[in-house]
Amino acid sequence: MSARIVLFDLGHVVVDWQPIRLYRDFFETEAEAAAFVRDVCNMDWHLQHDLGVPMAENADRLIADYPHFEPHIRAWRTRWLDMFEGYVPGMPPLMARLEENRVPLYGLSNLPAEIAEETFDAFPMIRLLRDVVVSGAEKVVKPNPKIYEIALARMGNPDPADVLFTDDRENNCAAAEALGFKAHHFQGAEGLEARLTAEGLL
After folding, report:
1. SS3 string of 65-117?
2. Are 59 and 147 found together in one domain?
3. What number of CA atoms fall less than 13 Å from residue 159's CA on the CB side?
4. Residues 76 and 28 in one domain
5. Does 50 share its domain with 142?
6. What end-to-end distance do the CA atoms of the chain give, in Å?
7. Are residues 117 and 172 in the same domain?
8. Model confidence pLDDT, tens digit, residues 107-161
């Protein structure tokens, strides 16, 4: 049975998000910027935003440990969009073709709720998605099975086998497959296009 619905992750799939882009403005060398996003404003810290912790509150906690980095830490919120560099290559035309084929398109993203609309406004292709499940609003993140169940409900409770979920992280794909979804480990638009074609969606 072929899929009839596509469920997209956003970061690294639809939009090109790399925090180091912002921090190149704060440091003289690439190595210093890389060290900052590894050791200070890192993904473990950012995960709290994705779980619904207010960004200002989470910043305050980190500033208590790194007061000399206060402007850098606050920039995570105030200059959020500076972490992006447009869409992942090839994805806008692919999404447009799916829309033209009237394929129902949805999103499922680990994303802070308070900057979701700002992000969607900056990248209009996201508005092609009929709905986006935002982890920060639900206070649960991938790969927790609960967020996939929320996504199914938001899509009208289809059979999970009718849904092709694509994500750049293999563990998120595996979690979806465990619940009966079809899944595609995203490594570029070309590979996704081939999978969509094989599913009869293009």
Report:
1. HCHHHHHHHHHHHHCHHHHEEEECCCHHHHHHHHHHCCCCEEEEECCCHHHHH
2. no
3. 6
4. yes
5. no
6. 15
7. yes
8. 999 999 999 999 999 999 999 999 999 999 999 999 999 999 999 999 999 999 9
